[in-house]
Amino acid sequence: MSDKIEKQIRLSKLMAEKGLCSRREADAYIQQGLVFVNGERVSILGTKVSPEARVTLDTPALQQQKKLVTIILNKPIGYVSAQPEDDYLPAIRLVTPENQYGVGNHLLRKEHFEGLAVAGRLDIDSQGLLIFTQDGRIAKQIIGENSSIEKEYLVRVEGILPKEKLTLLRHGLYLDGKALKPAKVDWINEDQLRFILKEGKKRQIRRMCELVGLKVRGLKRVRVGKLNLGNLPEGQWRFLEPNESID
Q: Which CATH architecture group holds 2-65?
C-alpha cells in the first residue's frame, strides 16, 4: 500500500505532463469541479493520483480553452520581451488595435491580456517572431522542460569561420558548464548563418558565436515549430488562427 502511495503524484502536475493545460490552469479547473479522474469528478486541490490515471476535462473547461488566445508579434529591436528594464518598453505595448495585422473578425479585447505571457524570449537587440499566449499547453510546447520544438534564426555575423569551427557550432560547445544540444547551422550567404535550435539559453546564439570568434551583427527569429513569421510586418501582430499549430 505504501509503495502505491509513494508513486502517486499531484493531479495538477499530471495534467500538465499530459499536456492538458498548465498547472495553474489545472488548479483552477479542479477548484471548479471540471476535472474527471477515471470518470470520477475531482474538486479538491492537492489530490494525488496514479500517473496512469485517465484524466479528462468537463465541457465547460474545454470551452474555456477554446477562448484562450495566442498572439504572434514581429518584435523590432529596442523592445524587451517581458518586464521593462532600463527604461525600455516591453514588446506587449505593441499589441494594440492599431497594430493588428489582418484583422478579420477577431478583434483585440481587454480579456485577451489576462494571463497573457511571453513564451520564448528575444533579447532587446534581437528581432522577429515573439509569441504571447494565454494557453499553458502552447507555452509548455515551446518552453517546457522537455520541449523539442525547433526555433529558427537568421544571424548576420562578422568574422572568419573555419570549417572546423562551423562543425563546433553544430555540436560540441558548452555554455554555463553544460553541453549544448546539437544544432543545425549553415551559411545562407557570405555574412549570414541560419541557426536551428531545440533549446533557448539566455543569449545562446550570441554566446555560441563568440566562442568561435564571430560577432553577431543582427539576429532575427523566423520560425518556432511549424509557425513561421511569414509576411507579418515589423511592429505588427496577429492572432494564432484555429487551423495553425506550433507542432
A: Roll (3.10)
Exposed, middle or buried, 147 (CB in 10 Å: 0-12/13-18/19+)? buried
pLDDT tens, residue by residue, 158-203: 999 999 999 999 999 999 999 999 999 999 999 999 999 999 888 9
6 vs 158, higher pLDDT: 158
Q: Which of 27, 58, 87, 123 is catalytic?
A: 123
pLDDT in tens, 47-79: 999 999 999 999 998 888 888 999 999 999 999
Looking at residue 134, its amino acid is Q
For residue 45, give Cα distances in angstroms to 29, 48, 140, 183, 223.
Answer: 10, 9, 21, 41, 38
Say whether 123 is catalytic: yes
CA distances from 90 to 76, 84, 117, 144, 236 (A): 11, 5, 12, 23, 14
Could you tell me which of 94, 134, 123 has the C-alpha nearest to residue 200? 123
pTM to 2 decimals? Answer: 0.84
How many residues comprise the chain? Answer: 247
Centre a 10 Å sphere on the Cβ of residue 68 and count the other Cβ atoms it contains: 19
Q: Classify domain 68-146+227-239 at the CATH topology level.
A: Alpha-Beta Plaits (3.30.70)
Domain borders along the chain are 2-65, 68-146+227-239, 151-224
CB 15 within 8 A of CB 36: no
